[in-house]
Write a structure and sequence with these properties.
The protein has 166 residues and is mainly α. It is 77% helix and 0% strand. The longest helix is centred in the C-terminal third of the chain and has 37 residues.
């Protein structure tokens, strides 16, 4: 079941990439020519690796939230809160760098910055490789934690489902 949804998510992402590729290319050309941003091959590769890990993190988190259907009849508001929470904490609405120091520390402890803010910063800020390695290790740690949480939630959810359904 997990493999099906993961492959479906990957297929959706590939379709989105194909559709949005022309816009992405124009954006990269703009960043290089107009903004004089120094985008090199290494930062591009690190960006793609980070986006791949972001897709896995997004899948794991979304699957965990989806498993709440074992306990709730209607997930509409749960999904709405998830989307708003991720949008705020991932830096979709504003850069996370403008947050006060306390909130920056809180956001840095959570996995959500890896959903948007961090991959974008790889391209725009040309972070040193040791910073990328450190953040990638943390991102891999979050993938491991979310995977363990997912296994626990599925096990408890299926048990509850079996108990109710007979």
């Amino acid at each position: 079941m997990q493999r099906y949804y993961f492959n479906k998510m990957i297929g959706d992402r590939i379709a989105n990439i194909i559709v949005l590729l022309p816009i992405f290319i124009v954006g990269v050309i703009y960043l290089i020519l107009v903004r004089q941003t120094n985008i090199n091959l290494i930062s591009g590769i690190l960006f793609i690796i980070s986006l791949t890990f972001t897709a896995v993190l997004w899948f794991l988190f979304s699957f965990i939230i989806g498993c709440l259907a074992f306990w709730f009849e209607n997930l509409f508001f749960v999904l709405l809160v998830k989307d708003v929470l991720i949008s705020l904490l991932a830096g979709y609405y504003f850069p996370l760098s403008i947050l006060p120091d306390f909130w920056k520390k809180v956001v840095n402890l959570l996995p959500f910055k890896y959903f948007g803010n961090y991959p974008v910063n790889i391209i725009l800020e040309n972070q040193p490789i040791n910073n990328w390695i450190e953040n990638t290790i943390i991102e891999l740690g979050w993938m491991f934690v979310l995977y363990i949480v997912l296994l626990v939630v599925i096990k408890k959810g299926l048990k509850r489902y079996a108990d109710i359904m007979g």
